Amino acid sequence: KALNLNTTLQPSNISFRTYSKNIIPCKGKIEVSVKYKDKTMPLAELYIVPSGHDTILGRDWIRGLKLELKQIDTDMESKQQTSFSSVNNVLQIDDIFQKFSNIFEEQIGCIPNIKVSLVLREDAKPIFTKDRDVPYALRSRVEKELNNLENAGIITPVTTSDWGSPLVVIPKPDGTVRLCVDYKCGVNDRLVSSNFPIRRID
Fold first, then answer.
1. Residue after which a domain boundary falls, among 34, 63, 84
2. CB neighbours of residue 187 within 10 Å
3. Which spans of this chain does the record mark as coiled coil (predicted)?
4. pLDDT over threshold 90, residue 134
5. Are 24 and 72 part of one and the same domain?
6. d(CA 141, CA 147)
């Protein structure tokens, strides 16, 4: 939201750092009088950054206005629920499910038009790690989950392979199991690492 302030921007040597360590330069600062409900803070410093960044409430303002963050969260949730209710009057939830039915399917989806490649190091040699024993009480559930993954087209059975990594079985609260593979056992060390910077969250 634009602020129509009849004041001159003062220079500032402060810069801000995001969680992903990106630097946000400061264009300057101004002094404003702030009021939130029945609380007022005179001559508060407001720092101006380039457009495209979210507004951040600093600790100086929180202390100066004696804000209760839990109450602010409650107010924001109330506004979001009110906004959602007004949208819901225009477009019912069932209409959304029907319009975007492919998104809400109760099955594991796939990312289209993307091919993943694993690059081996030049001196890499295949490694086959012995499987780990599955507790007898979980074996039937593991077999069932393997069949489910195969039927869904996520895994494909093979008879022989030069590569092998042990299965990790994780019991879930609903009685089923989650199947993972421990690729730390030799495979990861033989791959060329792909380093990608973390996307900016601001």
1. 84
2. 19
3. none
4. yes
5. yes
6. 10
Structural domain containing residue 27? 15-84
Q: What is the pTM of this model?
A: 0.48
Cβ proximity of 177 and 138 under 8 Å: yes
Q: Which helix (H) or strand (E) holds 179?
A: strand 177-181
- Check: CB of residue 69 under 8 Å from CB of residue 62: yes
167 and 125 share one domain: yes
For residues 63-89, average pLDDT: 66
| Rounded-to-integer distance, Cα 180 and Cα 14, Å | 46
Query: Is 74 in contact with 60 (CB distance < 8 Å)?
Result: no
> What is the spatial distance between Cα 57 and Cα 198, in angstroms, rounded to a whole number?
24
Taking only the tens place, the pLDDT of each residue in 176-197 is: 999 999 999 889 999 988 776 6
Instruction: Please state, in angstroms and rounded to a whole number, the distance separating the CA atoms of residues 17 and 23.
Output: 5
Reported as a pLDDT band with limits 50, 70 and 90, residue 33 is confident
Q: Domain boundary at 84, 107, 130, which?
A: 84
- Angstrom distance (rounded) from CA 184 to CA 165: 8
